[in-house]
Amino acid sequence: MKSRVPFYKNKFFIIGLVVLLLVAGGGAYAYSRKSKNSTSSNTTSLTDTSGNIINTEPATAEDKASNDQHKDELINQSKQTDTASDSTGKKSVTPLIVSANATSVTAYVPGVFEDGGTCTATATNDSSKATQISEGFKNASYTQCAPLTFTKALTSGTWDIVVSYNSASAAGASAATKVIVP
Amino acid sequence: MKQRGFVLFSLVLAFAASLVFSAALPQKAHALSGSDFKAGRIIDDSVFFDGNSMDIPTIQSFLNSKVLNCDTNGTQPTTRWNSAANRYYTRAEWGALNGNSAPYTCLKDYYTDVWGTSADQYCDAINYGRKSAAGIISDVARACRINPKVLIVLLQKEQSLITDDWPWAIQYSAATGYGCPDTASCDPAYAGLFNQVYYGARQYQVYAKKPQLFNYTGQKTYAIPNKFARTDCGAPNVYVENQATAGLYNYTPYQPNAAALNNLYGIGDDCSSYGNRNFWRMYSDWFGSSYGPAFYASYVSQSSYPIIDSGMGVSVFFRFKNSGTAFWKDDASVFPGYLPVHMATTFPINRWSNFRSNDWLRGDRPTGFFTKVYEVDNATLAADQHTVQPGQIAQFEFTIYANPSIPGGVYREYFQPILEGAPNPLWNMSGWAYLDIGVNVPKYKAAFAGQSAYPTINKGSSAASFLKFKNVGTDPWFDDTSKPTGKRSVHLATSWPINRPSAFGSAWTLPNRPNLTFSKVYEADGTTLAANQHIVQPGQIAHYDFTFTVPANTASGTYKEYFEPIIEGSPGYSWNMGTTAWLGVTVP
Does pLDDT of B509 surpass 80? Predict the structure, then answer.
């Protein structure tokens, strides 16, 4: 007669128990996570007016690190003094040219936030020169030059374009940008 | 025994392994990857300019969720070592050393008095009052039509104000970075949470309304630098797909480089900038996709509310901007496989309108054509008048007809552009508008008020005559020179029978219309001339001059010529103003 294998040695029983415990372990972890959440934030999910879910997880470790980092930046900024002034006592600024072509130049002046300054675009090539002025105005965190549109489009050839800025408090000129008019 | 021990061991191992595996799963998986960032499409217009996405309680709940415990008194330690005390500085100590003493107010707890603002072309008015940060965000979002989620992200990206549990005063005074140049102190005129949120939000509307004044606009390609004042860092070309993304670049004129995107939650390299990367990352992490539907219409403007007499039609229009990502075609330009945009009645959708006119496609489709297509400036006509590209504006024009069966009153009729034939809910392009249509069932009534003497006119001669009628109804009378849209003229007509061609009318506009305009208008006293000589108000008197011309072949005798004022073109018998007069013409 074949001897009976004890039930706990039956391989199907053992596999079944392993699976059961795996599921139970996962479940126990999930439950602990859920109960942690339910004590720390709203159990009902937050939605916008269209029903889209909004993330209500508390600030992450990364968020907290960047909060501290931001405060360090604020301290550094407060220690920074304004950049050099020129001989007239005005702040030195360097306008930046965003785009330039035969008809117009777009530029802005970082480092100042003011209305009423004058932007001047100067286009030069071997034989000629064209200038156009516009007014600067406040934009977000810098001074925007109103579009500098040449009264006569630049003629065919290679041009160097420089934008300079001058106001009661600041002055300076951009680096030259090359424009090739076909 | 040996075998039983193995079984037990493996069971314990399995349980432990399942715990370890579950715990090893990332607690908060970063669904985002830097490769999902599209420099030309950081956010869609339909999302960016949706000012109503969150109400105040929702914003407040969101703010509460991010900061569970505000360290108001700064009692927690910093990571800064205080060597004198041989311990870490507390936050209160470290803040005070840097000019920011406790207490610290977290954004969720912040209240301030707001003076309010008046309306301008960018934002509606905002009322004064004591407001929470959530209240300020919501009020500004609605008034300036900027998504409150965008404003929340702006506050975080500029000053970490959403997640900071001990924010400094300077973080509030420069909350959105508005008026704060890179190498100088902030303009004090814009300091404070309300000013910062308001002027920041308003600036994005300035970019949208006057795009030509700024560095970047939608639907154009630019070389956008990676880092401020570092030409060595490169400026890859970007096709900026929409105005919202252009606005972000106008506000923060740099794009993240590959290093910044590869380490989405950290720092990149010497050429990295983070503003627009962080905007996209924070928005996506907190609110999901920053993209909206392909077909999305936002209301721009419309014709004024019409007031029309019963039985009259009037032309009206609506303008909607294509704030989606797909182009619109109308019935004149659509091609097989694409769906046209039509104007539909709505609330409920496809409501059969009592104000339909013969030029509608159907009772629920006022028009299937763009009457005009404008560029983003809402003034320049687009080259293609039957395709609306993203950012462009379509005008839908059609006729409202006040069916005579409609009683007098004011009727609100809703309309919305739809993607015709698209399955639910894709047909819905969101934008809608309404007209309050005033229907006037006019009460025109005239009473005889005087006439010239009966003339005696020789054959082949003529003589001037006149008739006067008093307005005893409740509606003003208009003539052909004063008639507004939706109104009919009062004309003097021949009568008995009506529209009888007169033998003596060769000098008239028509042989049955002695005069189409009022010759004079008197006040009720019959002698004082009215201020307006082409409108007869109730109580006033219309004076019609006209000439009888007697043809040479007229038989001698006395002729009774009947006349009456009528409402020209009024249907049924409603032309009748209830009075008739006659002049006896004697031909010797």
Answer: yes
Residues of B whose CB is below 8 A from A135: none
Arithmetic mean of pLDDT, B40-67: 97
Task: Dig out the tokens for B68 from the structure.
Answer: 């569970």
CA distance linking residue B210 with residue B121, whole number of Å: 11
Report the 10 Å Cβ neighbour count for B260: 25
Q: Where are the beta strands (DSSP E) in chain A?
A: 46-47, 53-54, 91-92, 96-100, 104-109, 118-124, 129-139, 142-145, 148-149, 157-166, 170-173, 177-181
Distance between CA atoms of A121 and B138, rounded to whole angstroms? 42
Q: What is the pLDDT of residues B566-579, one digit of tens each?
A: 999 888 778 889 89
Contacts of B221 in chain A (CB under 8 A): none
Which of B 264-303 lie inside 8 A of A, CB atoms?
265-266, 285-288
Write down the pLDDT at residue B376: 84
- Binary contact (B222, A29; C-beta < 8 A): no
Please report, for residues A49, B41, B240, B290, the alpha-carbon distance to residue B44 in angstroms, rounded to integers and kept in the order given. Answer: 18, 7, 11, 6
B55, B108, B163, best to mutate vs chain A, most A CBs in 10 Å: B163
Given pLDDT bands bounded at 50, 70 and 90, which one contains residue B442?
A: confident
pLDDT value for A85 = 67
Residue B413 near residue B428 (C-beta atoms within 8 A): no
Count other Cβ atoms within 10 Å, centred on residue B239. Answer: 14
- Write down how long chain B is: 588
Contact of B187 with chain A, judged by CB distance below 8 Å, is answered with: yes
pLDDT of A100 reads 94
**Which tokens is B579 given?**
């009075």
Q: Which residue of A has its CA nearest to B248?
A: A140
What is the residue whose two structure tokens read 């033998």? B503
Amino acid at A105: V
Interface predicted TM-score (ipTM) of this complex, two decimals:
0.77
Which pLDDT score, from 0 to 100, does residue B15 have?
46
Residues of B in contact with A53 (CB under 8 A): 288
Instruction: Name the more confident of B417 and B184.
Output: B417
Tell me the pLDDT band of A58, cut-offs 50, 70 and 90: very high
pLDDT, position A27: 54
Residue in chain B nearest A43 by alpha carbon: B65
Q: Is the pLDDT of residue A81 over 70?
A: no
Cβ-Cβ contacts under 8 Å, B16 against chain A: 25
Taking CA–CA distances from B284, the nearest residue in chain A reads A55
Mutate to test the interface with B, among A67, A167, A174 (most CBs of B within 10 A): A67
Contact B579, B469 (CB under 8 A): yes
List the one residue out of B527, B504, B477 whose CA is nearest residue B582.
Answer: B504
C-alpha distances in Å from residue B404, one per residue of B415, B435, B441:
22, 19, 8
Contact B152, B59 (CB under 8 A): yes
- Are A140 and B211 within 8 A, CB to CB? no
User: Two tokens at B125?
Assistant: 């008015």
DSSP class of B269: -
Tell me if chain A has a CB within 8 Å of the CB of B84. no
Residue A134 above 60 pLDDT? yes
pLDDT for B177-197, tens place per residue? 999 998 888 999 999 999 999
Pairing between β-strand A170-173 and β-strand A91-92 as defined by DSSP bridges: parallel
Q: Are A46 and A56 in contact (CB under 8 A)?
A: yes
Set of chain A residues whose Cβ sits within 8 Å of the Cβ of B53: 48-50
Tokens of B18: 């399942």
pLDDT at B110 over 90: yes
Report helix, strand or coil for B283.
Answer: helix
Rounded CA-CA distance B61/B425 in Å is 30
- pLDDT-based confidence at A83, cuts 50/70/90? low
Q: How many CB pairs under 8 A join A and B?
A: 179
Among candidates A49, A54, A108 on the partner chain, residue whose Cβ is nearest the Cβ of B62: A54
